[in-house]
Design goal:
2 copies of one chain form a homodimer.
Chain A lengths: L13 E8 L2 H11 L3 H4 L1 H6 L9 H15 L11 E7 L8 E13 L6 E11 L5 E12 L9
Chain lengths: 154, 154
């Protein structure tokens, strides 16, 4: 049974979750499968690129962030999926050995008028590098079951 | 040597690229690593969810789309990476056996004022399901080298 419902996300709340050390092997494995551009596969090509060294695919960063979201709170929550991502910004490359963490800000919480059993939460998720700089941020809407469903409005 | 430079992307151009059959095994493998929510791991949980059956993680859809982008044109192009994604919308779930293709629309092309050797292209990428419906769409900016660098403007 979920522990966390829509009502538990409070606008303005900021929390930090988890950590993950990104390895050279996993950068290359992900890129080989999904994003085989040279700067994600080969240290020399990474060094010659704007990324300054072998760097994780931006989609790998998204996948790592999603795993931190799952382990941090989503797997204990009554999550119902997401309609989409409002914005993703890749600000700094992630290199082998970087230990990344997740910062979650609750930007907005609203109930669904048409489906009173559902609430929607807009999050800003930031993937933080070891020195606290932001490697990537994302604004995402996630749907959750309500602990106390609202009334269906006319 | 790249075949495709910034100048080769013409605003308004629409093309379709590649195809990939999404298997149950790869849906579960990706979800196990990065997005272990029940609807991405277990057919029964998928059926009970809003997705109507075992369905690929939205991040898996992004990764599959990136691979189609790479194989379709990006690996032959003078690509320099991307600052980010303006919007990602997950419109329909992707289920095992779905064969997906990529549709690329060139929305906007502009040169960089500060870096005359670079141009930026804004694409709308759509991941199409077998019947031509859109499972996911994305608006993404990608940087490319220019074949004919422009003048640095004051």
């Amino acid at each position: 049974m979920p522990e966390i419902y829509w009502e538990d996300f409070v606008e303005g709340d900021v929390k930090t979750f988890g950590s993950h050390e990104v390895t050279e092997a996993e950068i290359i494995d992900f890129a080989t499968a999904f994003d085989p551009q040279p700067m994600h596969l080969d240290p020399a090509a990474g060094k010659a690129s704007l990324l300054g060294g072998l760097a994780a695919s931006g989609w790998h960063s998204c996948a790592i962030m999603m795993r931190l979201i799952c382990d941090g709170f989503l797997l204990r929550a009554a999550g119902m999926g997401s309609p989409g991502v409002q914005e993703t910004v890749w600000r700094e490359p992630i290199h082998p050995g970087d230990v990344v963490t997740l910062r979650r800000k609750v930007l907005e919480s609203r109930s669904s008028k048409s489906r009173p059993e559902i609430g929607l939460v807009t999050f800003r998720f930031e993937l933080l590098k070891p020195k606290g700089t932001v490697a990537m941020d994302q604004t995402v809407v996630i749907m959750f079951s309500r602990r106390n469903p609202g009334a269906r409005l006319a």
